[in-house]
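User: Structure with pyridoxal-5'-phosphate, tokens only please.
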Amino acid sequence: MEDAYFLYHSIGLYPGKATDLTSAMTAFSQVWAAPNDAQWGYLLSHRARFIDRWRGIIHAPEGTLTTTDSVTQSLHMLLTALPPETLRGRRVLVGADCFPSNHFLLTKLAERIGFTLTTVPFRQGAAHVEDEDFLAHWTPDTALALLTWVSSTTSHRIDLPAMVAHGRSVGSIIGVDITQGAGLLPFDVTAPAVDFTISTSLKWMCGTPGAGILHVAANLTSRCQPELRGWFSQENPFNWNLDTFEYAPDIRRFDNGTPGCMAAIASLPALDWHAKADHGAILAQNRRQTARIIEAADDMGLSLVTPRPEAKRGGSVMMKITPPAPQIVAALRDQGISTDARGQTLRLSPGIVTTDAGVERLCTSLNQLLRG
Ligand SMILES: Cc1ncc(COP(=O)(O)O)c(C=O)c1O
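Assistant:
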């Protein structure tokens, strides 16, 4: 049941998603299977519209944003494109509450590129890294810092302006993983100005998997030489002269072979919906519903892992529960209430299709399950 859907940290839903997705995929099938030459015009123009929608969401200037398969791939593309001396012998900084996939990638690249990976630890018993601890580790030998705007296991939101101001003062390249907040909380790549941004479309934007993005500020792009390059990395993909490869001057240099446009096409209806939606109203609804969940958690005596102040949290409320979490999640599912858990942490993220009545149903059921 849509009214009690709490999985926006995983997959977002909006009214009409199934119908829109079916139409987009049907239209694609008809174009792709038609006995004419209309395919590439259709695919590439839809991909361009996807890029423009994303540029609108994060205020990315033209020529600074492209498509990727995943957040992890976006990070890989950026790190392997930097001139090797940028990172070699220096430090890359990340928090212990980063998305684990990014950390798996960074530990491997540390070996290959020759940087030291510093992971800012949790305090005793904490589930997110405190901003002040991150800042304390952010020393001038830090070539690059990857910030996680909103954590996927606590919904802790960092103080981005303070972090970026510090990063600028020590001269690091600053990247932000905005996956858990993008589309719900306002984000602007130019204020405070960050060097690169990575995300994907399937959470608050309600798109599909495979629809990742990489934004790179123009002055960083001009220094980058992506390793995975190909005909689409050029200004003119049809330059097939083997001796005159030249990177495109802008973000297109991060493209390589024929772009996989499917995820962009499938996600575009969701991004179109999002572009027309009332973002203030969506956020206000989320704030009202998360406040109610926090109140109910307090009444049940549950300990929150999400910070209480609105300014310090993303769109989720996460809390420790004692009975085996998978059983609680399954029991809620049986009642048509969609949640999930990581370890003993129950994750609840209400979005546009979640109703206040659905939130009440969740609170009542959870209370009964935890007492029973
Ligand atoms: C903070 C964060 N980063 C990244 C991802 C996804 O990364 P990828 O697209 O590489 O699977 C998630 C997914 O939950 C996330 O919460």
